[in-house]
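Explain this record to help learners:
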Amino acid sequence: MKEKAITITGGKGFLGRHLVKKLEERGYHHICIADLPQFNLVHRADIERMYEEQRPQIVIHLAAKVGGIGFNQENPASLFYENIMMGVQLMHEGYVRGVEKFVALGTICAYPKYTPVPFKENDLWNGYPEETNASYGLAKKMMLVQSQAYRLQYGFNSIFLLPVNLYGPGDNFEPRSSHVIPALIKKCIDAKIKNEEEIVVWGTGKVTREFLYVEDAAEAIILAMERYNKSEPINIGAGFEISIRDLVDLIVELTEFKGRAAWDEAKPDGQPRRMLDTTKAFEEFGFSAKADFREGLKRTIDWYYREVIAKD
């Protein structure tokens, strides 16, 4: 498999950069990246040109339009359209052109709002997703429908992975589109630098989330690519949950911010609880998360100081 031509969509992004590095370290020699600005994968013509130029045997589809709760509330239509058009067209053209394997990355946002914890893969269709990210979650979920349909009718080898929220060095710290961990790290460090006494956090802090270190996510994708060949969805996570309030306390401690956190309870919390059952990933291809959460946060904070603050 190490001699196969692999295309990674979104390969310049947060997860993509870590995945490319890990593949190269494992001895994969033929890796291409399909990403903006060279390829706008919402457009069919760019998808066709990508397949013609790169001629992949394996496609790993990471590219996505994605953001946090506020971004999702502002952009439900474009989140739905762009994600569904990328996924549907990439997989279809992959089938038409004889791609040997298509690895599709879904999202924990595809699960119903009130899924019992821990989330099991067979709960995926038992309700509607949480409203603030439903359009994104459903657009990504359609790749699962397509994957299973194309395997059933055409024998096309595609798999569908469901990762939790990722974090780690190189994350997106842009306030308008970042997820909760980088957003909180930036708030705390900015407030510390400006000698401010308070940061404002959305919601009540009562909801829970699960987080996966980005290098663990890259490892899971490689193992699934190498060993898993079924269309049943597979959860990719660390198997723990932490309340947002406890997360804030931990990031305040690690960033050494001496002020207080104020909670804007008029803002939405999002899904009440999130934690995946990761049993299948271990049983099917031997994946289990390795990174300690506290240590992963420290590495992320150190990266932000080194690569963002020190260079400003």
